Amino acid sequence: MEFLKFNELEKKINGLIADHALLKKRNLELEGLLQNKSMELEEVNKKIGGLREERDAIRTKVDSLLDLLREIKTP
């Protein structure tokens, strides 16, 4: 009877060890995915920064063209 308790305990411990290994593997997978997403986010933020700079340059050019148009006197 005592050996049955030890066998049951051994099964539970082996189950926990297997669960731990599985969770550790999944954790590594998720860390890899997180790192990839972080790199993608960084790239997107750089692209957004470039687009904002381009937008500001276009806005400045349009403003200067509008100023030139305002200076034109109509008869």
Structural write-up:
93% of the residues lie in helices and 0% in strands. It is mostly helical and 75 residues long. The protein is rod-shaped, with a radius of gyration of 32 Å. The mean pLDDT is 94.
- The total of helices stands at 1
Q: Helical residue percent?
A: over 70%
What's the overall geometry?
Answer: rod-shaped
- Encode the helix/strand succession as letters: H
Largest sheet data? none
Uncertain regions: pLDDT < 50 for 5+ in a row?
none
| Terminal-residue CA separation | 112 Å
Beta-strand proportion: under 5%
Which structural class do you get from the secondary structure elements? mainly alpha
Report the radius of gyration as a whole number of Å: 32 Å
> Roughly what is the average pLDDT, rounded to an integer?
94
Q: How many β-strand runs? A: 0
Briefly summarize what is shown.
The protein has 75 residues and is mainly α. 93% of the residues lie in helices and 0% in strands.
Question: Layout of SSEs?
Answer:
Elements: H1 2-71
List keywords for this structure.
93% helix, mainly alpha, 75 residues, rod-shaped
